[in-house]
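step=predict obj=LEM3/CDC50 family protein n=398
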Amino acid sequence: MSDTPRGVEHTDSIDSHDSAPKQPEKTKSRRPPSIIFAPIGGLLLYASSQVLCPVHGSVPSHHGLNPFAQTDMPGSAVDSAFKNANSSVRAQWARKKDVNVTLHNGREIKGNQCVLQFTIPEDMGAPVLFYYQLTNFYQNHRRYAESCDLQQLKGDARSYSDITGSKCTPLYGIKPNDTGKPYYPCGLIANSMFNDSFSSPVWQNPPNDGKARTYNMTDKGIAWDSDKDLYGPTKYKASDIVPPPNWAVAYPDGYTADGMYQPPDLQKWEAFQVWMRTAGLPTFSKLAMRNDEDKMVSGIYQITVDDHFPTIEYKGTKSILLTTRTVMGGRNNFLGIAYIAVGGVCIILGAIFTATHLLKPRKLGDHTHLTWNKAPASKPSGPSTAMASGREIRPGDS
């Protein structure tokens, strides 16, 4: 064997080959099996069943109701849910026409009222939440959802020309002169604000003295803290702005510097903040009142609704919802049912895979399933040959 010439080294020795990169060691999966969805879904359904919903009743448009006559509500107009499946609610309604009603700013006008009376067969622990619900009202329409001016809501005194350049179309303001006056607040959302008002539930049949007692509820604490940060006291002068068209009943002569007709403080008006958070579906509920301290004792209760908000024009309905909540939120069975369904599908698939493995198992490490080791159909099988790739002969190689 000839010696290797000086300056020439074998670079293709066995030691010169790089070893294959080390693959990360596979660790055992610690993810829970998919069937865990089933018991989680059961817990969600149980939590939902603990939410009491004594009354979910429609507020009628007063057509077909006799004035001042208390009549039973049809089954289609009222719904309820209790822990005891045998518990039921007996609800009645009546209307009052041309009575004195008080608006949010304290102004009294003649209007209509709807009186709802219902029974609660079980005590309701705090917190007790009072919602209003609308159907067929599309707050998620793109043009509607964008129709506001965030700077104006924050308190900036935006001029008429500024508002016309915003997304408040088509409700910018009025232009009696060259300067113009912007609406405050401008836009479609504010103009269409839900303006029915509700009395706190009145307990009609308390024990002992039998005198009616009010279950006090408040409209404070109904808005999110993050929503409150979007609003501020306005820097406008009352003479520089006008109320939106649908607010004319509450402000018949426009805004004044003081008194009940002064511009509203949007930073403290939580009912307005709740309405301005637009809903994603045409049927939605918004929180109107709450009681976080006292339980609602079983009995007969009465609620008076000052009816201002029209629903016939857009073929919708309105109703009230009195409910409790748990750590999982309000009453909603959808999530629990969905989890149980996913868990059930996983159990069925697992059973199918297990049966397939037991009845027709596959050998582990069976090289016959490797396609590159099979002879082509057009050629006879036989020992395979391999040809190494050539390389340049180096000096000293024989």
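step=describe
The chain has a mean pLDDT of 82.
step=end
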